[in-house]
Design brief:
95 strands, Reeler_dom, Reeler_sf, signal
């Protein structure tokens, strides 16, 4: 008899008697011959609340906005989970709905009849533990043949501020960092629990095919000895993550064991981990410092930002990283990364897009007493502010207490002395004498460790390091266990810290700690309220320590010593988020990956000196730094296709190169093609590999085919395609693809054989594609033998790696065709036999709409071409485009305007809304070098600081190849290519501010690396080449592909074109009204969105607004409701901004209800204050060290003026790095070393109002006597 698993059947189709069936997994109705709608769904899901805790309830409402519905299927799923597994359960189904089982009982809600419904509301029960971010997903049937599938709700996040959160849990992901020992033993896991019955534990290391099951209870210790090869080694990535799942809560202690080199750590459950950490360690001479990271989800991007205030240097993949540099790695679930260096890693900032676990320590020295140490790091959100420490017992040398900050200007108080720790990632050490205890506090959360130093008498142990639990994270009870030493047994001690009033209520294994052997209770010096500490010797095995009053808490740290080795770790701790906002407010550094303003979003603003998110603050949490981007042409996975050309005899080719200095393995395959093609190559550093593909992979006709090509690599690569004779372009990696595109092309008319082509390849199964043909141009697209026009959008479904080629049936120009999809797709555009001077093919991969920009510059490649054609296409309706001072209005998305330029003429293009720009080069004459290559011009907002690119090697021999770079004047001398300074023909680009220049130089075939030596300088880069035949290539060497749809003009980082860009309006206004309407006085901040074509402003603390009213007449108005024609102060003026109003303001007199001229109303633009030409900085403590005047220099540094004191060799400037930004007086321009600092972010020294810090006795202290005076 054949047995079939019932749950598997249920997960495929869930029948509902008498009504339309809907699949549990795909959520696809079982209506044959129909496809879902790809337009915006008229149905929404409303969720309340937007967070959940274990076993909590969430109210879910499915609502029709503009149409009723007849059927639905509703589930909750984990965001990003591809298993289609429903989560949680529904209860109390409403009328016309019923509960069903897909995987478990009541995990799905479905319609019970097909009556018309406006909305349904149901209660959902969260699972018994946090499972990460969730979303509700619904398929809605308007009728049998009209439906929308997988409509998603807003994300529901786990509430980490409530519910039981501690170091006990049910799900853990762990790793073991390297150890240096003559005899490294197997790593061990020790399990304890408060449960009286058996808890089932599963330990897995999938990459090593390791799996073990065991049980643990309050009376029975759990133990697992792992394989030695689970331990990391060296610097780099591996796949050694350990997954632990349990049936009830346990505590886990990891023991990294080696002969004379054992240490341990307290493991943290997954739901207590975070996305932001700082490394902290204590590294004796000769030890290798270590950092370990393990990912909990696929596609986890980790940035490790090196601190600027030490001499840390790290070599990874042949590159040397130092102060302020960022090491970036991408990890999948259970992948691990280890970093080793002989320098101290303390202060290294770790940020990631997904939750990770992080470890810090050092390897030890391979001698008779190696002294390995390790801690599992606490995420920043769970740091504390008050601490009590007692020294490790039996030691001859003092302990070291080290703490690290996460916020600037953190004040530490210890022994009654206060000191300021000025920067985030800053560390401070103090000595804890043997036999003593101390208490210390900070005003902002910090992380602290206790380091036991090497002992002259090795019988009492060796080096060990433990996290110091903050008092805020103390618990009322713990279970813990003691490990075995590598050579014999440890002497085990429990260090107990508790309020003096509660010392007699602490019990260990049912015995009073007060009455137990060991030290007597010793006072903790400086503690308030008073605390005491005691060490208690404990036997080998599992123990239970607790308070009789469960409402009170205490701390426990475990310590053990044996011959030449020691261990230490906390007995446990709560894992509360200390700040109510869930994070530590901190000054922002662009793209630092931190929630600087604690609003739940990371880097949500654009660094453009504007209030983008409407919270009254400017750039308080803004996006990536100049020259860097999160999406670009470098990647490790690509999907491509080859559309038709006029030269089908030419083999399609790929050019592969890598920015890496180590070998990269690249695999090219056709996963679904009938004739499988697979090729694997090893790509060597600084080499380009040419791969020739079969001609059969060129798409023909207008049907769906399986000719998608997948390219994968073990590290990032740059991939270029060559199609036809010379059509060459860079390929966009999957990570940077989009789901919305506008197609760009060119065909001025000509040969009847010309055809416009659009190629599309899907990155996921069940990808619904819609092609919307542009208005008023008469284009007809053919698909599968059917013609489609502007009145009939083309809709089709593609599975992963399937391709389709759409072909014009009449007009070959398909510009403006919009491609929409529900998943990521790659889109290619081309024309067979177009004409731009000569006749040839053009082909290009389209960039997603989200990468479009507003400002563009291009300079011709001089003698090689006679001219250029530029096409500018709007992304939005009602877009105004300015080209060299001439304006053109584009009424709808996809509309375009064309312009011609001479070969040597620079061109500047701007628009008030994002546009896409393409350039087509015109060759000299038929039979001479050149052709009509097409290149998409990158917006200046997407320029980069460095590029790796490949100059192609085609079937014909090129006359020459060129590169053209666009950069701010004066910066071109700092550009280097392949280690050599770039020199070439320079041309000034007029009407730009700052002054831009173009530099052209020849470049050889092959792989090249070009960069500016200063990381914050961006430039654009293009390539062009001609062949002896009628042939040419042109493409951008690279660009950022970030989503900049909300980006505004950036004063300090983006280029501003004087001839066609207006000045950015005032950001901060100070308003004074001293007579009739005094309540409107104060500071106003410019809001994100303008109103009626003018900037709008919001009071920083009150519900007051300033905006332009556009009624029968236009006037500026102060009111309490934004946009309403009701207010109390006005000015009849159409000035571009309120600070430019020239007429007298009028105020409403409430005493007689009349409007009156009010001379007391004045407005001042604070951020347009005149820059100081000279200034002095004085005060009692600094007047001797900083005498004389500082004179304004010509250069601008980090968007601020810089000054020089030539008499003393000092500079005053604005410093920016990943750990903060501040004004500083220093001896080296641009360095972070100085005498006086101020963290005010004012754009002008006149506007500095923050507190000054001066360096005294090696510490930064607040100095209220410092005065800055402009002269």
């Amino acid at each position: 008899m054949r047995l079939i698993q019932v749950s598997a059947l249920l997960s495929i189709v869930m029948p509902v008697t008498g009504v339309t069936d809907i699949s549990c997994g795909t959520m696809q109705p079982n209506s044959r011959g129909t496809t879902p709608r790809t337009s915006k769904s008229p149905y929404t899901l409303v969720i309340s609340p937007s967070t959940y805790t274990p076993n909590s309830q969430v109210t879910v409402t499915l609502r029709g906005q503009s149409a009723n519905f007849k059927g639905f299927l509703l589930q909750a799923r984990v965001v990003g989970d591809t298993s289609n597994q429903p989560i949680g359960t529904f209860t109390s189904p409403p009328l016309h709905a019923q509960l069903r089982r897909c995987q478990t009982a009541d995990d799905t809600l479905i319609h019970s009849d097909e009556t018309s419904k406006k909305e349904i509301t149901v209660t959902w029960n969260a699972p018994s533990k946090r499972v990460g971010d969730l979303e509700f997903v619904v398929t809605v049937l308007q009728s049998v043949n009209t439906y929308w599938i997988r409509v998603k709700s807003p994300v529901v996040t786990p509430d980490m501020t409530s519910g039981s959160m501690s170091t006990s849990g049910t799900d853990f992901i762990l790793m073991f960092i390297a150890i240096n020992s003559e005899e490294p033993g197997p790593p061990e896991l020790i399990f304890t629990t408060l449960e009286s019955s058996d808890v089932h534990v599963t330990v897995e290391v999938p990459s090593l095919s390791y799996k073990r099951s065991l049980t643990v209870s309050m009376s029975s210790l759990g133990f697992d000895s792992l394989r030695r090869d689970v331990r990391m080694s060296g610097t780099g990535k591996s796949n050694k993550g350990i997954l632990v799942t349990t049936s009830a809560e346990v505590s886990i202690y990891g023991i990294n064991k080696g002969l004379y080199a054992t240490d341990g750590f307290l493991a943290l459950p997954i739901d207590t981990l975070g996305k932001e950490y700082y490394a902290i360690s204590y590294t004796p001479d000769g030890h290798y410092c270590e950092l370990g990271i393990v990912a909990t989800k696929d596609d986890t991007i980790v940035h490790m930002i090196l601190p600027t205030h030490n001499n840390l240097r790290i070599t990874y993949k042949g590159n040397t990283y130092q102060q302020g540099d960022i090491i970036a790695v991408t990890l999948d679930k259970l992948e691990t990364f280890q970093l080793q260096t002989s320098s101290d890693l303390t202060g290294l900032h770790i940020v990631s897009n997904e939750i990770v676990a992080a470890y810090s320590g050092h390897t030890g020295i391979e001698d008779t007493s190696p002294g390995h140490s390790v801690v599992q790091l606490l995420p920043v959100s769970r740091w504390g502010k008050s601490f009590a420490v007692t020294s490790f017992p039996g030691r001859t040398n003092d302990d070291i207490i080290r703490l690290v900050t996460s916020a600037e200007n953190t004040t530490l108080t210890i022994d009654g002395i206060q000191m300021v720790l000025p920067f985030k990632g800053w560390h401070h050490n103090f000595t804890l004498p043997s036999g003593s205890s101390k208490y210390f506090t900070t005003d902002k959360p910090v992380l602290a460790i206790q380091h036991g130093q090497d002992q002259s008498n090795h019988a009492n142990g060796d080096i060990t390091t433990a996290i110091v639990p903050s008092i805020e994270q103390y618990q009322s009870e713990y279970t813990f266990a003691t490990p075995d030493a590598s050579d014999g047994n440890f002497v085990n001690e429990a260090l107990v810290l508790v309020r003096t009033t509660n010392q007699d209520t602490v019990y260990l294994d049912s015995a009073s700690v007060t009455s137990m052997n060991g030290d007597t209770w010793q006072p903790v010096g400086g503690s308030s309220p008073a605390m005491v500490a005691k060490r208690v010797r404990v036997t080998v095995g599992q123990h239970h320590i607790y308070m009789k009053d469960s409402t009170e808490t205490f701390g426990v740290v475990l310590f053990g010593y044996a011959n030449k080795e020691s261990y230490s770790f906390p007995g446990g701790m709560e894992m509360k988020i200390i700040n109510s906002a869930g994070c530590v407010p901190s000054p922002a550094f662009a793209g630092d990956g931190t929630d600087n303003d604690c609003d739940g979003s990371v880097d949500e603003e654009t660094c453009d000196n504007m209030d983008n998110d409407g919270d009254g603050l400017i750039d308080e949490d803004c996006n990536l730094p100049p020259g860097q981007c999160s999406l670009h042409y470098e990647g490790n996975e690509f999907i491509i296709m080859f559309i038709e050309t006029a030269t089908p005899t030419e083999d399609p080719k790929l050019f592969v190169s890598s920015p890496s200095t180590s070998e990269v393995v690249v695999t090219i395959e056709t996963p679904v093609f009938g004739k499988p093609f697979t090729k694997t190559i090893v790509l060597y550093p600084r080499r380009t590999h040419v791969i020739v593909l079969p001609k059969e992979l060129i798409v023909t006709g207008t049907t769906v085919e399986k000719k998608g090509i997948l390219v994968r690599s073990t590290d990032d690569i740059i991939l270029s395609m060559q199609q036809g004779l010379c059509g060459t372009f860079n390929v966009i990696p999957v990570t940077a693809l989009g789901d919305n595109y506008l197609v760009m092309s060119w065909w001025p008319g000509g040969a009847a054989t010309s055809r416009g082509l659009i190629g599309i390849i899907a990155a996921e199964d069940n990808t619904y594609v819609r092609a919307i043909i542009p208005l008023d141009v008469g284009v007809i697209l053919t698909y599968n033998g059917i013609d489609y026009n502007e009145t009939q959008p083309l809709e089709l479904v593609l599975n992963k790696f399937e391709t389709v080629q759409l072909q014009s049936a009449n007009v070959a120009d398909v510009t403006g065709t919009k491609i929409e999809a529900n998943n990521k797709v790659a889109v290619f555009s081309g024309v067979v036999s177009t004409t731009v001077g000569n006749s040839d093919d053009i082909v290009q991969e389209m960039t997603p709409i989200h990468a479009a920009g507003t400002t563009f510059v291009h300079v011709g490649f001089h003698e090689e071409v006679t001219g250029y054609r530029f096409r500018v296409m709007s992304v939005h309706s009602n877009t105004t485009v300015t080209i060299s001072g001439n304006e053109t209005y584009l009424s709808h998305a996809g509309q375009y305007t064309d312009h011609s330029m001479s070969s040597a003429e620079p061109v500047g293009i701007s628009a008030d809304k994002p546009v896409i720009v393409a350039e087509f080069s015109e060759s000299k004459a038929s039979g001479t070098p050149g052709g009509p290559p097409m290149v998409l011009i990158p917006p200046t907002q997407q320029y980069r600081n460095e590029y790796t690119f490949t100059v192609p090697m085609p079937s014909t021999v090129y006359n020459s190849s060129y590169l053209m770079l666009i950069i701010e004047g004066g910066q071109e001398d700092q550009i280097f290519m392949d280690g050599n300074q770039v020199q070439g023909q320079r041309v000034d680009i007029v009407d730009t501010s700052p002054q831009l220049v173009g530099v052209t130089t020849t470049v050889s075939a092959g792989r090249h690396h070009i960069y500016h030596q200063f990381h914050d300088v961006k430039f654009g880069l293009y390539l062009y080449g001609t062949a002896r035949e009628v042939c040419a290539f042109s493409f951008v060497a690279g660009m950022c592909l970030d989503d900049i749809r909300q980006t505004k003009v950036r004063n300090t980082t983006d280029f501003k074109y004087v001839s066609f860009t207006v000045d950015v309006p005032c950001t901060k206004l100070t308003v004074k009204s001293t007579t009739l309407q005094q309540s409107f006085s104060g500071q106003y901040i410019r809001m994100k969105e303008p109103l009626n074509g003018r900037p709008a402003y919001k009071h920083t603390t009150l519900g007051r607004f300033l905006y332009l009213i556009d009624a029968q007449t236009k006037f500026w108005l102060f009111g309490t409701e934004l946009g309403k024609n009701r207010g109390l102060i006005l000015a009849h003026s159409e000035a571009q901004e309120p600070a430019e109003v020239k007429v007298t303001w009028r105020s409403y007199d409430t005493s007689d209800m009349t409007w009156k001229d009010d001379d007391s109303v004045s407005l001042q633009c604070d951020d347009k204050a005149t820059t100081c030409e000279k200034l002095t900085i004085g005060g009692d403590m600094v007047s001797n060290s900083i005498p004389g005047e500082f004179v304004l220099r010509s250069n601008v540094l980090n968007g601020r003026p810089a000054y020089e004191n030539t008499a003393r060799g000092l500079y005053f400037y604005y410093f920016v790095d990943s750990n903060g930004q501040f004004w500083i007086v220093g001896t080296k321009l641009g360095a972070a070393v100085g005498l006086v600092v101020n963290t005010d972010r004012a754009t002008n020294p006149r506007l500095i109002t923050g507190r000054w810090l001066t360096l005294q006795g090696g510490h930064w202290v607040v100095d209220r006597d410092v005065q800055l005076q402009c002269m």
